[in-house]
Protein backbone atom coordinates (compact mmCIF):
# COMPACT_ATOMS: atom_id res chain seq x y z
CA UNK A 1 0.00 0.00 0.00
CA UNK A 2 1.26 3.50 -0.78
CA UNK A 3 1.65 5.31 2.54
CA UNK A 4 3.12 8.46 1.01
CA UNK A 5 0.96 11.51 0.47
CA UNK A 6 3.01 12.31 -2.61
CA UNK A 7 2.95 10.07 -5.69
CA UNK A 8 6.19 11.68 -6.76
CA UNK A 9 7.93 10.64 -3.53
CA UNK A 10 6.57 7.10 -3.86
CA UNK A 11 7.96 6.92 -7.40
CA UNK A 12 11.46 7.39 -5.99
CA UNK A 13 11.32 3.98 -4.31
CA UNK A 14 8.89 2.05 -6.54
CA UNK A 15 7.80 2.00 -10.15
CA UNK A 16 4.19 2.37 -11.24
CA UNK A 17 2.47 1.49 -14.49
CA UNK A 18 0.08 3.76 -16.35
CA UNK A 19 -2.62 2.17 -18.48
CA UNK A 20 -3.92 3.32 -21.82
CA UNK A 21 -7.60 3.54 -22.54
CA UNK A 22 -10.11 4.86 -25.02
CA UNK A 23 -11.46 6.99 -22.18
CA UNK A 24 -8.60 9.45 -22.65
CA UNK A 25 -7.77 12.16 -25.11
CA UNK A 26 -4.36 13.66 -25.81
CA UNK A 27 -4.13 17.43 -26.04
CA UNK A 28 -1.25 19.65 -27.02
CA UNK A 29 -0.97 23.06 -25.38
CA UNK A 30 1.55 25.88 -25.15
CA UNK A 31 2.91 26.51 -21.66
CA UNK A 32 5.21 29.25 -20.30
CA UNK A 33 8.98 28.48 -20.26
CA UNK A 34 9.05 28.59 -16.48
CA UNK A 35 6.28 25.96 -16.26
CA UNK A 36 8.01 23.84 -18.92
CA UNK A 37 11.18 23.85 -16.78
CA UNK A 38 9.22 22.49 -13.79
CA UNK A 39 7.50 19.89 -16.01
CA UNK A 40 10.94 18.67 -17.13
CA UNK A 41 12.16 18.53 -13.52
CA UNK A 42 9.07 16.53 -12.48
CA UNK A 43 9.46 14.10 -15.39
CA UNK A 44 13.12 13.46 -14.49
CA UNK A 45 12.27 13.18 -10.79
CA UNK A 46 9.36 10.77 -11.20
CA UNK A 47 10.67 8.94 -14.30
CA UNK A 48 7.09 9.00 -15.57
CA UNK A 49 6.04 9.82 -19.12
CA UNK A 50 5.17 13.48 -19.46
CA UNK A 51 1.98 12.53 -21.28
CA UNK A 52 0.37 11.00 -18.19
CA UNK A 53 2.12 13.05 -15.51
CA UNK A 54 -0.86 15.35 -14.93
CA UNK A 55 -3.78 13.05 -15.86
CA UNK A 56 -4.74 12.08 -12.31
CA UNK A 57 -3.86 15.50 -10.93
CA UNK A 58 -6.16 17.27 -13.38
CA UNK A 59 -9.06 15.00 -12.36
CA UNK A 60 -8.37 15.69 -8.67
CA UNK A 61 -7.98 19.42 -9.26
CA UNK A 62 -11.16 19.57 -11.35
CA UNK A 63 -13.10 17.64 -8.69
CA UNK A 64 -11.84 20.04 -6.01
CA UNK A 65 -12.69 23.06 -8.16
CA UNK A 66 -16.20 21.74 -8.84
CA UNK A 67 -16.74 21.40 -5.09
CA UNK A 68 -15.89 25.06 -4.58
CA UNK A 69 -19.47 26.15 -5.37
CA UNK A 70 -22.92 24.56 -5.49
CA UNK A 71 -23.46 26.71 -8.58
CA UNK A 72 -21.26 24.18 -10.40
CA UNK A 73 -24.13 21.70 -10.19
CA UNK A 74 -25.27 22.19 -13.82
CA UNK A 75 -21.74 21.32 -15.04
CA UNK A 76 -21.80 18.15 -12.93
CA UNK A 77 -25.36 17.15 -13.87
CA UNK A 78 -24.70 17.64 -17.59
CA UNK A 79 -21.68 15.33 -17.49
CA UNK A 80 -23.19 12.82 -15.03
CA UNK A 81 -26.05 12.21 -17.48
CA UNK A 82 -23.46 10.62 -19.79
CA UNK A 83 -22.22 8.25 -17.07
CA UNK A 84 -19.20 8.24 -14.79
CA UNK A 85 -15.75 7.38 -16.19
CA UNK A 86 -13.46 5.51 -13.78
CA UNK A 87 -10.80 7.83 -12.36
CA UNK A 88 -12.40 11.00 -13.72
CA UNK A 89 -13.33 14.08 -11.69
CA UNK A 90 -16.94 12.82 -11.48
CA UNK A 91 -15.73 9.44 -10.21
CA UNK A 92 -13.77 11.26 -7.48
CA UNK A 93 -16.94 13.20 -6.57
CA UNK A 94 -18.87 9.90 -6.35
CA UNK A 95 -16.18 8.27 -4.17
CA UNK A 96 -16.14 11.23 -1.79
CA UNK A 97 -19.94 11.17 -1.54
CA UNK A 98 -20.34 14.60 -3.14
CA UNK A 99 -22.63 13.07 -5.77
CA UNK A 100 -24.67 9.92 -5.39
CA UNK A 101 -26.13 7.47 -7.87
CA UNK A 102 -29.82 7.96 -8.49
CA UNK A 103 -31.14 4.82 -6.74
CA UNK A 104 -34.59 5.11 -8.34
CA UNK A 105 -32.98 5.22 -11.80
CA UNK A 106 -30.89 2.13 -11.00
CA UNK A 107 -34.04 0.34 -9.76
CA UNK A 108 -35.87 1.14 -12.99
CA UNK A 109 -32.92 -0.16 -15.05
CA UNK A 110 -33.08 -3.39 -13.00
CA UNK A 111 -36.83 -3.63 -13.66
CA UNK A 112 -36.27 -3.26 -17.41
CA UNK A 113 -33.50 -5.88 -17.40
CA UNK A 114 -35.70 -8.25 -15.39
CA UNK A 115 -38.56 -7.82 -17.86
CA UNK A 116 -36.25 -8.52 -20.79
CA UNK A 117 -35.14 -11.79 -19.15
CA UNK A 118 -38.71 -13.06 -18.72
CA UNK B 1 15.33 66.85 -18.46
CA UNK B 2 14.15 68.32 -15.16
CA UNK B 3 15.07 65.08 -13.36
CA UNK B 4 18.30 63.22 -12.93
CA UNK B 5 18.55 59.40 -12.81
CA UNK B 6 20.07 58.03 -9.61
CA UNK B 7 21.88 54.94 -10.96
CA UNK B 8 22.57 53.63 -7.46
CA UNK B 9 18.87 52.84 -7.02
CA UNK B 10 18.79 50.46 -10.03
CA UNK B 11 19.84 46.79 -10.05
CA UNK B 12 21.80 45.19 -12.88
CA UNK B 13 19.62 43.21 -15.32
CA UNK B 14 18.04 43.17 -18.74
CA UNK B 15 15.74 46.06 -19.64
CA UNK B 16 11.99 45.52 -19.89
CA UNK B 17 12.26 45.84 -23.68
CA UNK B 18 14.93 43.13 -23.74
CA UNK B 19 12.85 40.85 -21.49
CA UNK B 20 9.77 41.06 -23.69
CA UNK B 21 11.84 40.89 -26.88
CA UNK B 22 13.35 37.56 -25.82
CA UNK B 23 9.93 36.30 -24.71
CA UNK B 24 8.56 37.18 -28.15
CA UNK B 25 11.43 35.52 -29.98
CA UNK B 26 11.25 32.21 -28.09
CA UNK B 27 7.97 30.42 -28.82
CA UNK B 28 6.25 28.87 -25.82
CA UNK B 29 7.07 25.18 -25.46
CA UNK B 30 4.43 22.56 -26.20
CA UNK B 31 3.11 20.11 -23.63
CA UNK B 32 1.19 16.97 -24.57
CA UNK B 33 -1.20 15.88 -21.85
CA UNK B 34 -3.54 12.91 -21.62
CA UNK B 35 -6.83 13.76 -20.03
CA UNK B 36 -10.05 11.88 -19.22
CA UNK B 37 -12.63 12.54 -21.94
CA UNK B 38 -15.17 13.16 -19.19
CA UNK B 39 -12.93 15.84 -17.60
CA UNK B 40 -12.37 17.38 -21.00
CA UNK B 41 -16.12 17.66 -21.64
CA UNK B 42 -16.51 19.54 -18.35
CA UNK B 43 -13.60 21.86 -19.23
CA UNK B 44 -15.15 22.45 -22.66
CA UNK B 45 -18.45 23.29 -21.03
CA UNK B 46 -16.73 25.79 -18.69
CA UNK B 47 -14.90 27.27 -21.68
CA UNK B 48 -18.14 27.60 -23.71
CA UNK B 49 -20.05 29.23 -20.89
CA UNK B 50 -17.28 31.51 -19.61
CA UNK B 51 -15.73 32.48 -22.94
CA UNK B 52 -12.26 31.62 -21.61
CA UNK B 53 -10.17 29.51 -24.01
CA UNK B 54 -9.83 25.85 -23.03
CA UNK B 55 -6.02 26.18 -23.18
CA UNK B 56 -6.12 28.99 -20.62
CA UNK B 57 -8.27 26.92 -18.25
CA UNK B 58 -6.00 23.89 -18.68
CA UNK B 59 -2.86 25.98 -18.16
CA UNK B 60 -4.21 27.36 -14.91
CA UNK B 61 -5.23 23.84 -13.85
CA UNK B 62 -1.75 22.47 -14.60
CA UNK B 63 -0.19 25.28 -12.52
CA UNK B 64 -2.46 24.26 -9.62
CA UNK B 65 -1.63 20.58 -10.10
CA UNK B 66 2.11 21.38 -10.01
CA UNK B 67 1.58 23.40 -6.82
CA UNK B 68 -0.31 20.48 -5.24
CA UNK B 69 2.39 17.99 -6.35
CA UNK B 70 5.11 20.11 -4.75
CA UNK B 71 3.17 20.55 -1.53
CA UNK B 72 2.46 16.81 -1.30
CA UNK B 73 6.14 16.08 -1.91
CA UNK B 74 7.14 18.63 0.74
CA UNK B 75 4.89 16.83 3.26
CA UNK B 76 6.82 13.61 2.60
CA UNK B 77 10.26 15.11 2.26
CA UNK B 78 11.10 18.81 2.20
CA UNK B 79 14.66 18.19 0.96
CA UNK B 80 13.44 16.31 -2.12
CA UNK B 81 10.90 19.05 -2.84
CA UNK B 82 13.52 21.81 -2.52
CA UNK B 83 15.78 19.87 -4.87
CA UNK B 84 13.00 19.54 -7.51
CA UNK B 85 12.32 23.29 -7.32
CA UNK B 86 16.04 24.10 -7.58
CA UNK B 87 16.45 21.79 -10.59
CA UNK B 88 13.50 23.49 -12.32
CA UNK B 89 15.18 26.85 -11.67
CA UNK B 90 18.45 25.50 -13.14
CA UNK B 91 16.59 24.35 -16.28
CA UNK B 92 14.87 27.73 -16.60
CA UNK B 93 18.21 29.49 -16.10
CA UNK B 94 16.95 31.32 -13.00
CA UNK B 95 19.02 31.74 -9.83
CA UNK B 96 17.12 29.71 -7.21
CA UNK B 97 17.66 32.48 -4.63
CA UNK B 98 16.01 35.08 -6.87
CA UNK B 99 12.53 36.39 -6.21
CA UNK B 100 10.02 34.67 -8.47
CA UNK B 101 12.05 31.48 -8.81
CA UNK B 102 10.33 28.12 -8.16
CA UNK B 103 12.47 27.73 -5.03
CA UNK B 104 11.50 31.18 -3.75
CA UNK B 105 7.80 30.47 -4.31
CA UNK B 106 8.03 27.06 -2.67
CA UNK B 107 9.76 28.26 0.50
CA UNK B 108 7.47 31.28 0.70
CA UNK B 109 4.28 29.22 0.35
CA UNK B 110 5.48 26.76 2.99
CA UNK B 111 6.52 29.54 5.36
CA UNK B 112 10.10 28.25 5.38
CA UNK B 113 13.30 30.32 5.37
CA UNK B 114 15.15 29.69 2.11
CA UNK B 115 18.24 31.65 3.18
CA UNK B 116 18.59 29.55 6.29
CA UNK B 117 18.01 26.28 4.40
CA UNK B 118 20.68 26.93 1.76
CA UNK B 119 22.90 28.84 4.20
CA UNK B 120 23.08 26.19 6.94
CA UNK B 121 20.23 23.65 7.02
CA UNK B 122 21.15 21.61 3.96
CA UNK B 123 24.90 21.58 4.73
CA UNK B 124 24.18 20.45 8.28
CA UNK B 125 21.96 17.59 7.07
CA UNK B 126 24.59 16.56 4.50
CA UNK B 127 27.26 16.46 7.22
CA UNK B 128 25.01 14.57 9.66
CA UNK B 129 23.90 12.06 7.05
CA UNK B 130 20.34 13.29 7.48
CA UNK B 131 19.42 13.09 3.80
CA UNK B 132 17.25 10.13 2.78
CA UNK B 133 17.86 7.45 0.16
CA UNK B 134 15.06 9.02 -1.89
CA UNK B 135 16.99 12.30 -1.88
CA UNK B 136 20.09 10.48 -3.16
CA UNK B 137 17.96 8.84 -5.90
CA UNK B 138 16.77 12.27 -6.92
CA UNK B 139 20.32 13.68 -6.96
CA UNK B 140 21.34 10.79 -9.22
CA UNK B 141 18.39 11.27 -11.58
CA UNK B 142 19.05 15.01 -11.87
CA UNK B 143 22.76 14.49 -12.45
CA UNK B 144 21.86 12.49 -15.55
CA UNK B 145 19.64 15.33 -16.79
CA UNK B 146 22.14 17.53 -18.59
CA UNK B 147 21.14 21.08 -17.71
Descriptive overview:
- The complex is a heterodimer of chains A (118) and B (147).
- The longest helix of chain A is centred in the last third of the chain and has 15 residues, at 103-117.
- The termini of chain A are far apart.
- Chain A has 118 residues and is mainly α.
- Chain A has helices at residues 7-10, 33-46, 50-53, 55-66, 73-80, 89-95, 103-117, and one strand at residues 24-30.
- Chain A folds into two domains: 1-53, no CATH class; 54-118, no CATH class.
- Chain A is elongated.
- In chain A, helix 4 (55-66) packs across helix 6.
- Helices cover 54% and strands 6% of the residues of chain A.
- Chain A contains seven helices and one strand; from the N terminus they run H-E-H-H-H-H-H-H.
- Chain B folds into two domains: 33-76; 77-147, no CATH class.
- Helix content of chain B is 67%, strand content 5%.
- Chain B is built from seven helices and one strand.
- Chain B has helices spanning 16-25, 37-50, 54-76, 78-92, 102-110, 114-128, 133-144; one strand at 30-36.
- In chain B, helix 3 (54-76) crosses helix 4 (78-92), helix 4 packs antiparallel against helix 5 (102-110) and helix 4 runs parallel beside helix 7.
- The interface between A and B is large, with 56 and 54 residues.
Keywords, separated by commas or semicolons:
heterodimer; A: 118 residues; mainly alpha; 7 helices; elongated; B: 147 residues; 2 domains
Chain-wise SSE layout:
The complex is a heterodimer of chains A (118) and B (147).
Chain A: H1 7-10, E1 24-30, H2 33-46, H3 50-53, H4 55-66, H5 73-80, H6 89-95, H7 103-117
Helix pairs in contact in A: 4-6
Chain B: H1 16-25, E1 30-36, H2 37-50, H3 54-76, H4 78-92, H5 102-110, H6 114-128, H7 133-144
Helix pairs in contact in B: 3-4, 4-5, 4-7
Amino acid sequence: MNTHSSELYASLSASTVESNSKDFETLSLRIPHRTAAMVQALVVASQKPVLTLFTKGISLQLAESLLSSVDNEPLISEEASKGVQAGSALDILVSTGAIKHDKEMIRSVHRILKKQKT
Amino acid sequence: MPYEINHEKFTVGPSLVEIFQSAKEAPMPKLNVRIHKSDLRILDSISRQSGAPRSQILNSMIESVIGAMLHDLAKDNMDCCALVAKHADDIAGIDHMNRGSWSDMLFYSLGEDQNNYYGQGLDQKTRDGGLTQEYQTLVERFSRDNV
